[in-house]
Amino acid sequence: MARHDHQLHEGESLKSAARERLTQQGEQWTGMRAAVFAALASFEKPASAYDIAEAVSKTEGRRIAANSVYRILDLFVGANLARRVESANAYVANQHPECLHDCIFLICDTCGQAVHIDDDALSASIRKAATNAGFSAPRPVIEVRGTCGECEDD
Ligand SMILES: [Zn+2]
Ligand SMILES: [Zn+2]
Ligand SMILES: [Zn+2]
To answer: Which ligand is in closest contact with the Cα of 103?
Structure first.
């Protein structure tokens, strides 16, 4: 995909973009999926399936197993509604569910926050290098660890 300025959704606009994307894929936006997405989007940092299961259990008023949350998160990742932050073993809501990018995450070692950037030129050159090395269907996972601006100021 060419470089473009896409909209980064937040709040209600993020929820409706996610719902639209999922239903376009022929999947239902069930109450449980909506609750998992709302919980995921409410975290300021990448959240584990356990964190999300706990948050959903509170809002739903009944115990939700982490396994059911995992299955929904898998569906969300496949549908471009969520991204997995591999080095944190956690998930974030994808702020641009309508367009595909190899999202790049900058993760703060101090506070755990993940800053999200998209740089298709960078990921395209990684894809090309992988293809040149005989790798097929490369899926770049680009994560940078360091200290975020807020923690640096302290
Ligand atoms: Zn985009
Ligand atoms: Zn992205
Ligand atoms: Zn930080």
So the answer is: 2
From ligand 1's centre to the CA of 3, what distance in Å? Answer: 8
Task: Work out the end-to-end distance of the chain between its first and last CA atoms, rounded to an integer number of angstroms.
Answer: 39
Residue 152 tokens, joined: 């640096």
Q: Which residue is it, tokens 């300025």?
A: 5
Which listed ligand is nearest to 99 at the C-alpha?
A: 1
Q: What is the pLDDT of residues 80-121, one digit of tens each?
A: 999 999 999 999 999 999 999 999 999 999 999 999 999 999
pTM for the whole structure:
0.92
Ligand (nearest to CA of 118): 2
Sign of CA dihedral 7, 15, 87, 151: positive
3-state helix vs strand vs coil in the chain, percent to 5 = 45, 15, 40
Token duo for residue 122:
């960078």
Ligand 3 center from residue 154 Cα (angstroms): 10
Note the pLDDT tens digit of each residue in 25-78: 999 999 999 999 999 999 999 999 999 999 999 999 999 999 999 999 999 999
